């Protein structure tokens, strides 16, 4: 029954979209079980720029809150689940922690994959080592978006400042933070990092992470908070990278463990 079958909301990662490979993979996986899926595009990520001066960030939970309540109101008989990747996982954990018990009345259970629990550490890693491969790509698309915003909203940001940005941390400090009403990058990290909201979570949540995640390696995980909560179920693997978790011995036919594990976990609550 389409009116009562489970509904899953998927949240993409930084500079991703509903068309990201990992989102489409999850949608196919759940659809094979006749579960319905919805993928949220954060502001500016759909291929069309949003109209407001701000766009999206790791702590912006008001849009997620609106979508969750809209889905719950539209399909009140369907159990609602949420799956978040990377930045989307940080947003989801923050929302769950902010809403505490009320979140459990709206969302049956949740899954997060490769969350940057400490945004400051993640930003440093994006600017160094393997992370720089991602960071320079992020900077390229983010600069384009900001320059488009500067054209649409004169006075929002000096284009010269944008052109002179050399690192991801510099971008967050001089451009990203002020546009979104944060004092600086450190203020943004402190107010939005998921690790500060874990104690408030009252919704059963599977936490998938790899110790070799280039953005937030195993040594930087908030292990104590993750294992103290009876609502959080951390599964930390040795390998998996960032939102990878490929399994099988056929490179031309990869299988993604996070997909089957997310389905298995959420199915236990339906």
Instruction: Report the total helices.
Output: 10
Task: Work out the oligomeric state of the chains in this entry.
Answer: single chain
Radius of gyration: 18 Å
Overall pLDDT metric: 93
Percent of residues in helical segments?
A: 40-55%
Low-pLDDT stretches: none
What's the N-to-C terminus distance? 14 Å
What summary fits the major beta sheet?
6 strands, parallel
Which of globular, elongated, flat, extended, rod-shaped describes the shape? globular
**How would you write the strand order of the largest sheet?**
2-1-3-4-5-6
* Structural class by SSE content: alpha/beta
Number of strands: 8
Strand residue content: 5-15%
| Sequence of secondary-structure elements | EHEHEHEHHHHHEHEEEH
